[in-house]
């Protein structure tokens, strides 16, 4: 029992650190400050954090700042020099090198591609031949609610990762999901509802703010996208704007969701794999039917 209590306590403390990092990316996130939030000695905190999350605090901050920079390049007209400063780089040249190393193209080219594909959605590299209809088996998950910009849900995943690592969930493979309840084009950004989720065994004790939920089984249409999460909007344009009206299918009364097929800590954004699920009406046919 004492070991279980210690794990739960470590999970809560690391969850606080992850939440602080995600919400204060523009601040000086020193090791001493983060160790104080976790109530650990700085001499031991950095080893614990790396053992639990798989990366150092500096690597977490760099990854989250570059992810935010990709969203700002794709969705805003902010000057690249300003985006570079927000990401913590002293020069545009240093930012260009870091961004290109992760995204396989420099920031200006990345922005130009996103603008072109927004203006010419049918010319993107996501086409209807990539859509697959299949059965989703369902999943029991720990869900951490997020309210606001969908692109900011990453902070909730940082909290889930810290909690999961501290509680030994990574001893077996886990599936990671996000559920998106609202249409970002129709609902004010501040009111958008989503949930960051990790697969669990039903009945497991959860961390602060988490809820046990089941993503129900059923028929789904899916697309697997390779690349940064900032590019996922065009996948939804393909599913809802091109494929669905021509498919003869009807969406079910269940929200869309995503599954993240590889670890963003282990591969660069250009190699991130995301499967987008659109629930469909109708029964799943048995194999061979």
UniProtKB/TrEMBL annotation:
What organism is listed for this UniProt entry?
Answer: Salinarimonas soli
- Is this entry keyworded Transcription regulation? yes
Protein name per Swiss-Prot or TrEMBL: AraC family transcriptional regulator
Superkingdom to which the source organism belongs: Bacteria
Extract one GO molecular function annotation from the record: DNA-binding transcription factor activity
State if Acyltransferase is listed as a keyword. no
Task: List each copy of the HTH araC/xylS-type domain by range.
Answer: 15-113
Q: Which UniProt keywords apply?
A: DNA-binding, Transcription, Transcription regulation
């Amino acid at each position: 029992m004492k070991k279980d209590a210690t794990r739960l306590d470590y999970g809560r403390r690391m969850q606080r650190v992850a939440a602080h990092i995600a919400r204060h990316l523009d601040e000086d996130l020193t090791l001493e400050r983060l160790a104080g939030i976790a109530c650990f000695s700085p001499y031991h905190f950095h080893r614990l954090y790396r053992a639990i999350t798989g990366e150092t605090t500096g690597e977490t901050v760099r990854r989250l700042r570059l992810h935010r920079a990709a969203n700002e390049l794709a969705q805003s007209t902010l000057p690249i020099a300003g985006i570079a400063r927000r990401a913590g780089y002293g020069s545009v040249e240093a930012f260009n090198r870091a961004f290109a190393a992760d995204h396989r193209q420099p920031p200006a080219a990345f922005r130009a591609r996103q603008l072109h594909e927004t203006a010419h959605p049918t010319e993107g590299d996501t086409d209807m031949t990539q859509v697959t209809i299949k059965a989703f088996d369902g999943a029991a998950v720990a869900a951490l609610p997020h309210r606001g910009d969908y692109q900011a849900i990453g902070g909730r995943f940082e909290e889930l990762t810290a909690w999961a690592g501290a509680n030994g969930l990574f001893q077996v493979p886990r599936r990671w999901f996000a559920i998106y309840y609202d249409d970002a084009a129709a609902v004010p950004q501040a009111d958008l509802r989503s949930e960051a989720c990790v697969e669990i065994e039903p009945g497991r004790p959860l961390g602060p703010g988490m809820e046990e939920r089941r993503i129900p089984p059923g028929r789904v249409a899916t697309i697997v996208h390779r690349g940064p999460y900032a590019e996922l909007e065009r996948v939804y344009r393909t599913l809802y704007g091109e494929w669905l009206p021509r498919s003869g299918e009807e969406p079910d009364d269940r929200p869309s969701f995503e599954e993240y097929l590889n670890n963003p800590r282990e591969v660069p954004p250009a190699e991130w794999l995301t499967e987008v699920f659109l629930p469909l009406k109708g029964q799943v046919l048995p194999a061979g039917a």
